[in-house]
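Inverse folding, one chain.
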């Protein structure tokens, strides 16, 4: 880390920061967290409620920002009751010593005002060791209905400032909700559980949602015409388009990185096999697997070259990887006798999948590095956890916990899982982050 010259206080702050993380460097005057550091600690961040603000809006902004930063995987959000600073006197600045005294390395300040249906929001980020000059600032204005999204956008900027990576705030999660009468619906919500809504609008069985890579469309399987056919709807819902209606199964879709094709399970020839179909008209492009076993749950790799899928060709269900052009498949899961629902990490430079495993009495979520073969357990001893899906930056996983709802957790296995939806949920899929 490169630092400006300073006195003893600045030196102590620098030493403290070096102890906090295994490695940090300067970038455009800001601290960059080494996201690969094996011994990385959590950066202490204070987010006080904004003063000289609309009180209800300020409480909401502070809560949304605190949630975002607490699940980012890099920060420890300090409790507000510990703050010593005179917030009214500080306004949109800080008195550094007051924040050092509570252990804060960063302080996020804001002011929000509302008028009718509109808002104005100003944010500033301070690094305590650098004094009362803000390291990052940004202003937003718009409709009240968009205030949460503006907070998410700011928190993405903060994560990018510290780490060089975008956050996943503002993205959406889709999942299946069981309903009365044996039906089910495809729901979507903000990643933090806010603003849930139904994408499917029919009273039938709807399941296995899959976001397109752009986040503009959702594919899902529906029995609305008495066969498990594949449909595609816009992200806002509405009347879906039937894309694949082969006899038997049309399930478990996964979009190609360029959005032009989908990998899907079809059973039109007698047993479930993996196929690739056109996203335009559903025409079959090629058959990928050809085995007497059951092959299902394809997941497309981020570079578009491979598919992970589930097969029982070795006895119980296990995870295999195959070229999108077909050929010999390679088994990659070897823990336990039951492994399903693979999903690829979109993290740049990584070759990693997450999947559901049962290698004890419970179902849990694990990740597997396909290069090093290192497996990391994300859940353990917390009920049955299934159907993981990576966040847009690969830093977190969403998954269903039986009887509890939808949870998100750090993909590296650190920290605790956070519930974002309470109730019935299966078939979780995390969509793309909003465009910058």
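Residues assigned per position:
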């Amino acid at each position: 880390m490169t630092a400006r010259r300073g006195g003893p206080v600045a030196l102590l702050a620098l030493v403290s920061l070096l102890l906090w993380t295994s490695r940090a460097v300067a970038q455009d005057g800001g601290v960059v967290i080494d996201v690969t550091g094996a011994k990385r600690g959590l950066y202490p961040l204070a987010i006080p409620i904004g003063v000289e603000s609309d009180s209800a809006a300020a409480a909401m902004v502070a809560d949304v920002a605190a949630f975002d930063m607490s699940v980012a995987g890099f920060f420890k959000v300090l409790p507000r009751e510990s703050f010593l600073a005179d917030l009214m006197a500080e306004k949109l600045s800080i008195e550094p010593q007051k924040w050092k005294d509570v252990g804060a390395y960063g302080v996020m300040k804001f002011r929000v005002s509302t008028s009718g249906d509109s808002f104005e929001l100003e944010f500033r980020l301070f690094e305590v060791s650098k004094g009362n000059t803000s390291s990052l600032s940004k202003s937003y204005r718009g409709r009240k209905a968009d205030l949460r999204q503006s907070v998410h956008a700011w928190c993405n900027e903060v994560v990018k400032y510290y780490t060089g990576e975008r956050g996943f705030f503002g993205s959406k999660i889709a999942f299946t909700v069981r309903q009365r009468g044996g039906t089910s619906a495809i729901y979507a919500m903000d990643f933090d559980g806010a603003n849930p809504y139904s994408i499917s609008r029919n009273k039938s069985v709807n399941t296995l949602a899959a976001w397109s890579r752009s986040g503009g469309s959702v594919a899902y399987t529906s029995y609305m015409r008495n066969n498990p056919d594949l449909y595609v709807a816009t992200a806002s819902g509405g009347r879906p388009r039937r894309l694949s209606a082969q006899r038997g199964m049309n399930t478990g879709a996964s979009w190609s990185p360029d959005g032009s094709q989908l990998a899907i399970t079809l059973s039109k020839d007698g047993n479930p096999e993996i196929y690739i179909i056109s996203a335009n008209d559903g025409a079959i492009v090629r058959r990928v697997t050809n085995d007497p076993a059951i092959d299902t749950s394809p997941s497309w790799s981020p570079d578009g070259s491979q598919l992970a899928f589930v097969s029982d060709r070795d006895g119980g269900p296990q995870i295999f990887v195959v070229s999108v052009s077909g050929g010999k498949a390679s088994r990659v899961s070897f823990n336990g006798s039951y492994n399903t629902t693979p999903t690829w990490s979109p993290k740049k430079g990584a070759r990693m999948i997450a999947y559901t495993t049962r290698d004890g009495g419970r179902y849990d979520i694990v990740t597997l590095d396909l290069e090093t073969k290192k497996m990391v357990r994300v859940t353990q001893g917390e009920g049955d956890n299934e159907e993981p899906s990576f966040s847009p930056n690969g830093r977190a996983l969403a998954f269903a916990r039986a009887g509890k709802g939808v949870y998100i957790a750090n993909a590296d296995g650190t920290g605790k899982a956070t519930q974002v939806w309470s109730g019935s949920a299966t078939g979780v899929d995390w969509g793309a982050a909003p465009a910058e």
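Confidence is low (pLDDT under 50) at residues 1-30. The longest helix spans residues 55-71.
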